[in-house]
Amino acid sequence: MPPDPDPQDPPKPPPSDPPKPPVAPGEAHPGGGPTPEPPPASKTVLEGTKGEKDAALERKLKERELRVSELEDENHRLKTIPPVPDPPPPPKPKKKEWLKGWTFFDRED
Q1: Are 27 and 35 within 8 A, CB to CB?
Q2: Could you tell me the residue ranges of all domains in the chain?
Q3: 3 state SS of 28
Q4: 35 and 25 Cβ atoms separated by less than 8 Å
Q5: Residue 92 pLDDT class (50, 70, 90 cuts)
Q6: C-alpha 96: how far from its chain's center?
Q7: Which of 16, 35, 78, 108 is 20 to 30 Å from 27 at the Cα level?
Q8: Any idea what DSSP says for residue 103?
Q9: What is the pLDDT of residue 4?
């Protein structure tokens, strides 16, 4: 339990200077002097540019997606049953000779 304040100590008045807002990078500090440069990573974060690592990962991701789609296409092609071609038409019967059956000696066998 905190100690009881002495009745003889007067309460402290509130500070006269309100707290100052933080200073953005690149702006002058109220105390003067050189402004510190922001770290290099902050520039990448603020601009939204991608680093070499991110670009390489994106490239690998696109290559992997392309390979997956190729494999899915091949899988579909292999699983699909090819259509059965129509059977060839039966051969036409040979034509009879023009004179067959017109003579007495021809027999139907």
Answers
A1: yes
A2: 49-76
A3: coil
A4: yes
A5: confident
A6: 72
A7: 16
A8: S
A9: 60
Tell me the C-alpha distance between 76 and 58, whole Å: 27
Render the burial of 45-81: b for 16+ CB within 10 Å, e for the rest: eeeeeeeeeeeeeeeeeeeeeeeeeeeeeeeeeeeee
pTM for the predicted model, two decimal places: 0.37
The amino acid occupying position 95 is K
- CA–CA dist 108, 94 (Å, integer): 15
Which residue is it, tokens 């021809």?
A: 106
Q: Report the SS3 class of residue 70.
A: helix
| Cβ-Cβ contacts under 8 Å for 106 (sequence gap 6 or more) | 100
74: amino acid identity, one letter = E
Q: Which two tokens stand for residue 56?
A: 């390489």
